[in-house]
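Pasting as-is:
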Amino acid sequence: MTITKNLSFNASCGEKGEKYTAQNGEDTYFGSHNINMDSDMQSKYSPPKEAHWLLRRIYILSWIGNYDRSQAFADLIAGITLGLTIIPQSIAYASLAGLSSEYGLYSAFIGSIIYVFFGTIPQVSIGPTSLMAIMTLQFCADKPVQIVIVLAFLAGLVELLMGICQLGFIVSFIPAPVTKAFTSGTAVIVVIVQVKNLLGIRLKNVPSVADFFSNIRYTDATMGISCICLLLSLRLLSQVKFKRDTPFTQRLKKILWYISISRNALVVFFSGLLIYLWVQKSSLEAVPFALSAKVSSAMPTIKLPPFAFEHGNRTYVFTDILNELGSGVFLVPIVAVLANVAIAKAFVKDGRLDASQEMLTLGLCNLAGSFFSAMPTCGAFTRSAVSQASGVRTPMAGIYTGLIVLSALSILTPYFQYIPKASLAAVLMAAVVFMIDLTPIKELWQTNKKDFFSWIGSFIICLVYSVEKGLLFGIVVSMICILLRLGNPKIEVTLKQQDSKYYVHVVPQSDVFYTGVDTLRAEIRAACLLYRCDFPVVVQCGRFMQFDATFVEMLMAVTKELAQDNVLLILQHMSLKQQQMLPVASNIRFCNEDEELPLEAKQ
């Protein structure tokens, strides 16, 4: 059979509808007619004009002009409610991070205020979290508190740069199973760490199980277990249902809901009050409970983060601090961004989330917090849920929350030392125990073995080694799977018939990048061997991604191989731009639809 060098085809993939004809090696291009849309239709269905960059970055400017009295009242209620929630949490999370109480409140104060001006989601509450506390403990345990403050500065700087550089897509590389395993592993670590405070065990290291039980202080254990039972009972109050829906039952349900969301504050307040009355009747030394550290002065002051300081007999400079923090400089902000964006996605109304703006805002919260001696912060799902249930309307609620925290710092500072460690441990354990989610084990085993092993591996490594290594393991496994998928795309090869003619149909089942061209070439070669080069080869090109010189080289090599056996190569659904990159060859045809396949019988 003689194959002529005449190619004629219509390429409908181009946006402008060009028509391209190649005859005898000469290329001819025809322009297309632009369709003018009616001006009324165009204005009706045109996308909304993008807001000025200043309004998008200083987000308060986009809504403060329409702020009214009803919104202000709703935000006042939500802000006060959130303040009663965040104060005991901040004290508890500071304790979890190995810090005294005021550092957690500093973070709650400045995070709530900064988010008002730059935050986009009213429900998001920036402040101390169990996740950031355990990460801080991981990298700053038994180290000077100045290192924690510098960590907050560096984390904020990294988050700010990620927001400026529009790097919100990075979070997409951390799959949901890894995130769930990381969260569950962190929650288990919090519970394990707080068991000693709950039971009053004062040994730094417990050498054996016998020593663990022999060092339990039954006064602290009684206090801690009682607080946990009370917290779990109060949590159920919000779920109470009444048979009749009357104005009285509605008011009663609202009261029970307020008591339920204020349970942490109530437990911390009454346990602290009990110790205070005990001290008034006897002395501080006579109290049979382990108490929080004494706070001398807790009012926040603005000062530069300690990039160089002296501690003990050692002088720390900035490079020493970086060496102490290690990978925490990058892992802490990445985890914070992951948590913050996940919470923002859960509460965004219209589905349009500016992840980069949230990253930028979180960075500013941590940067500003470092000037007030704060620990690293991010959003907390529990507090965001409280804000949602409290009827928050705008981020202005953070002003009221910040003022309540500031009042606590100025008034309640002398009384922080009366808070029992067992009650704080109970608050932490009751909060994080519901973050432990083991349901993915069964689901992933049945649906996706790769995600199952990612979950198991991340969870175990978080518990055995460290949380950052568990997260890193999950990310690496996921990246390896992505690379394997890119290098080995799924290709379906079938023998089809059009009228009385047969052809080999090669259809990629996934996107093909330059990394997968060798796999595609191998499948075409194997199909030719199987069918003894008796039929034309039709390659579906609609899933060719980032078509470049590697694709051109592969297709021309395949063309030469097929030309030796007088086999026609038909490239289906290839865009005009891609067609123009290919040199003219005698045995290449182009088409768009199966019905238009230019099949020629092999002679």
